[in-house]
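User: quick one, fold this
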Amino acid sequence: MNKANLIDAVAAKAKVSKAEAAKVIEATLEAAVEAVKNGEEIQLVGYVSVNIVSQAARMVKNPSTGAPITIPARKVVKMKAGSKFAL
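Assistant:
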């Protein structure tokens, strides 16, 4: 499902126009991105949790040359599906 499909589905389920559904979805996504950028964790119980985790620096090998490469420490977004996504 892409964003357009999500807008269509939300508009149909909520019985609102596609324009209204698009505004709500866009506002929701913007608020979520802003919260994660500010270091907040998002928890939608049963659906998803999103937070930022730190990855330590590590050494890897270049697959073509075998030379060691250092990947610096960084922060990444981690998402975990909730129980309602169990198949």
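User: anything notable?
Assistant: Residues 18-37 form the longest helix (20 residues).
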